[in-house]
Specification:
The structure is a homodimer. By secondary structure, chain A is α/β, with parallel strands linked by helices. Chain A folds into two domains: 153 residues, Isopropylmalate Dehydrogenase (3-Layer(aba) Sandwich), CATH 3.40.718; 155 residues, Isopropylmalate Dehydrogenase, CATH 3.40.718.10. In chain A, 47% of the residues lie in helices and 16% in strands. The first copy, chain A, is built from 14 helices and eleven strands. In chain A, strands 3-2-1-4-11-10-5-6-9-7-8 form an eleven-stranded mixed β-sheet, sandwiched between helices. In chain A, strand 5 and strand 6 form a beta hairpin. The longest helix of chain A is centred in the C-terminal third of the chain and has 26 residues. Chain A is globular and about 60 Å long. Chains A and B meet through helix 8, helix 9, helix 10 and helix 11 of A and helix 8, helix 9, helix 10 and helix 11 of B.
Chain lengths: 344, 344
Amino acid sequence: MRIAVDAMGGDHVPEHPVNGAILAARELDVEVVLVGDEAVLRSHLTRAGSPAGIKIVHAEQVIAMDESPATAMRGKRRSSIHVGARLLRDGEVQGFVSAGNTGAVMAVVKVIVGSIPGVDRPALAVVLPTETGRAVVVDAGANIEPKSRQLVQFAVMGQHFAREILGVERPRVGLLSIGEEAGKGNELIRTAHGMLSEAPLDFIGNVEAGDLYGGRADVVVCDGFTGNILLKASESVVEMLRALLREEFSRTWGGRIGAVLARGAFRRLRQRVDYEELGGAPLLGVRGLAVICHGRSSPRALRNGVRVAMEYAAHDVSQRIEEALATLRPVARAPDGDPTDTRA
Amino acid sequence: MRIAVDAMGGDHVPEHPVNGAILAARELDVEVVLVGDEAVLRSHLTRAGSPAGIKIVHAEQVIAMDESPATAMRGKRRSSIHVGARLLRDGEVQGFVSAGNTGAVMAVVKVIVGSIPGVDRPALAVVLPTETGRAVVVDAGANIEPKSRQLVQFAVMGQHFAREILGVERPRVGLLSIGEEAGKGNELIRTAHGMLSEAPLDFIGNVEAGDLYGGRADVVVCDGFTGNILLKASESVVEMLRALLREEFSRTWGGRIGAVLARGAFRRLRQRVDYEELGGAPLLGVRGLAVICHGRSSPRALRNGVRVAMEYAAHDVSQRIEEALATLRPVARAPDGDPTDTRA
């Protein structure tokens, strides 16, 4: 299997993508294609002892982290993101991993690789740890103001992701809202609730944010605005608790000794909740998989992004999603050939 | 000062409200008025040794936790919530604390006590711990689909709350969104951003959920749907981490001993982040203060609700809000006398 890695995307380039690629090539059964400035990448790889299993594909432009996605998409057609997306479209690689400008990756991949028939717009999936295992949130930020029918598409995509990647045979799909009763939530949620009830899913109704980490649902469906707030708030709480705990532990001798003795516990906890281990956010709904990682991704986080892309390709999740969407009632599918259709 | 406590609202009634009232009367300079079934309350108080500083006002009806707020409001005019709200309206008490049906408390208080001129609808404020202190989120769940001008009202109310209750002289007001740039977010947020920029506030622009717990803003403005998701997700993360940490600590001897030695650190951390200590959610924008507590509130949480109500009344926050709203540009104020007005 071959996975492309954007060597020019992220806060630490090309070091973190290069080192992530080296980790992936060493630890996983994969050939990694690094996309970026060939001369720069060549010299980095040479210094690292020219590790096996890594190829370079040249891209002469770089899209900056703060560049406008729309402008970058049109103005930088030879960027590492564009080149990586073309490799994906042409079947040269089975997945593309980038820690670059999220908006640009989404826009470029959507246009170059194309959406799965029946999908209005791709959606970001983020896997969360729960008390009992893992859950996937769709959409985590790609679609700020989606229509109700798109939430149904998110649900179908999330269902197949949970089945193939999280290994849940019958994923329970929940709609994120502020109360469990069907009438609770805003207009988007109320309409989507009705449509989800009729879709071929194990729909368990509304779930509250308070139930999320308890593991009530395997798939949590929401609009991208809410999903983004949910995930960023969660990360922020974890960081705050870590800072406060460190502060409190350091205040007494007992705390300091306790912290040392409990080091293993803290390390295992970190492995269970850290974004690094979760391998980035797959962009569901395109033909082929792009995995979008945090800008600040470590080499290990990028390596895990490659792992997720491999699993996704191996289970042919895109194909599963396409088949499932074909069976949806027309109202929940993206209209064929008429992107201006405004139903639901 | 006199504060009413709803003795019939919450998951553990009347025990928790009664014991919360006893704690408040003992530890704070306040007279507590318990509202509920007089015979039942009398017998509880007698068993507790008839503590000083507690009065009973009879209310013969109880609104259940899962009752429809609209139905309960009209159908149970002699409920403890109605009676408490009337005490507040008539100036018999300076605040009303309830752990009862949140929707019913909001609806009844709004109708009986009335909104401050210039406020479309009251909003819930929730105080959060941050790495550097505290911040207040408005709205935490009262208004699911507010208009942009209401977000400006939330900001003004939050500003005065932060100044008087959190003790921040010049509160920094942030608008919760998914990116810092002015154009980021949904339509509601984009419109509100413009209006907030022109309001007499220390508006620092959009803040992301990831900045929240770092303490970037003292007042975080959002719609009630997003606010509810944000807060419930945060609580849920804390609970998950607690469960996972307990599990990991118990796996090794080092972890178990470490946990014992670090007990003090954990206890102090809990005091900093627990909802119990934060004293419930004040309903801002009504004439006088209602504090809404978690249904599962402990006696200590209710006691802290009384404390917040006392501080609010002592600083005359409602009056400050009314004065500030009078200076707002008409577009951001609630229209006088015409509740069907749909501007902004």
